[in-house]
Specification:
Blueprint (H helix, E strand, L loop, with lengths): L12 H4 L6 H19 L3 H7 L4 H8 L7 H10 L5 H14 L14 H12 L2 E6 L10 H11 L5 H14 L10 E7 L1 H4 L5 H14 L5 E6 L13 E5 L8 E5 L4 E4 L2 H17 L3 H24 L3
Parallel strand pairs: 1-2, 2-3
Antiparallel strand pairs: 1-4, 4-5, 5-6
């Protein structure tokens, strides 16, 4: 049965009043609203795709906020879904224009591959990120010198200028950890991350000191899986779970590869990785044990530095 004007679905105020968010968040919220309108109307993604001369997969990508929107497509979908109220339509179409505005990270397009631009957009939109790392300190927690060494390792042929651009991008991303509504970050790392002398003793020592400071922040949780834990839940390697403040948006699992990335948002996949992350958090050191380990490593590195100085000719 068609929707009558009196029954016309109205977009929630949370969607219409979200223009202060970044473009990825806007696309995700707009996509979530389009999904809600489609489901209320009882239409399939195939039917919606046909209405805009596209496929069901295009509708899925739009509803997940993975692509930009064309105003004509959204206008046609709103008509199909029975949303004819002029004010509501105007507000949603204005949201389309905002959602298509490039994010700040696009100015780093010369050093930022397309597949990682998607991740940064999600990172900027997320309210909580849980991440597990086996080789490096997570990028959002790296010092500038440590980040420089990681970049050099991953891009050995890069010029000094390119390296500094990549480091600057990483430091700019860390702004999400500050401000009135900072990102909540829950990081679990393998002990090898702290033991590997990347960039030399002083760089690693400064990085450990930074981590020790960050463990005092209420919105940051940092844990270490000790070598003594043996095998553990995340045998498959590093991954991140991103959660968003908008309750209708599903969590996203991010898996980074050497030259590409993979994003998972199917409930079964997300649940599986969430369970692994939960087990990792139990297997890892708690807050007090993590801080004690960081202090112990700082003491060890301090002794190494003094010993090295004493043996110089």
């Amino acid at each position: 049965m068609s929707t009558t004007p009196a029954e016309e679905p109205a977009p929630p105020a949370a969607v219409l009043d979200c223009h202060g968010n970044g473009p990825t968040a806007l696309r995700m919220m707009l996509g979530s609203q389009l999904r809600r309108l489609r489901e209320v109307k009882g239409l399939s993604t195939e039917q919606a795709g046909h209405a805009i001369r596209g496929s069901h997969s295009k509708i899925s990508r739009m509803e997940n906020g993975r692509v930009g929107f064309k105003e004509r497509d959204v206008a046609d979908l709103l008509t199909l879904y029975g949303l004819v109220d002029a004010e509501a339509r105007s507000a949603l179409l204005a949201l389309v224009r905002d959602a298509n505005t490039p994010g700040w990270w696009h100015r780093y397009g010369d050093v930022l591959p397309d597949w990682f631009q998607v991740y940064i957009g999600l990172e900027q939109a997320a309210s909580l990120i849980r991440t597990y790392e086996v080789q490096f300190v997570p990028g959002l927690l790296q010092t500038e010198d440590y980040a420089r060494e990681v970049v050099r390792l991953g891009h050995p042929e890069a010029s000094s200028e390119e390296i500094e651009r990549r480091v600057d991008l990483r430091m700019t991303r860390q702004a999400r950890l500050h401000g009135p509504t900072p990102l909540k970050l829950w990081a679990v790392v393998d002990e090898a991350v702290l033991r590997r002398p990347l960039g030399g003793e002083e760089v690693q020592r400064e990085q450990v000191r930074r981590l020790l400071e960050l463990t005092e922040a209420d919105h940051i949780t940092f844990q270490v899986v000790r070598f003594s834990a043996g095998g553990h839940a995340a045998a498959g390697g590093p991954f991140s779970l991103l959660r968003f403040a908008e309750p209708r948006l599903s969590d996203v699992i991010y898996l980074e590869q050497l030259t590409s990335s993979l994003y998972l948002d199917k409930p079964g996949d997300v649940d599986r990785y969430r369970q692994v992350m939960d087990r990792l958090s139990v297997e890892a050191c708690d807050d007090g044990e993590t801080r004690a380990l960081l202090r112990a490593i700082l003491g060890e590195r301090g002794r190494h530095g003094r010993d090295a100085a004493h043996t110089r000719p």
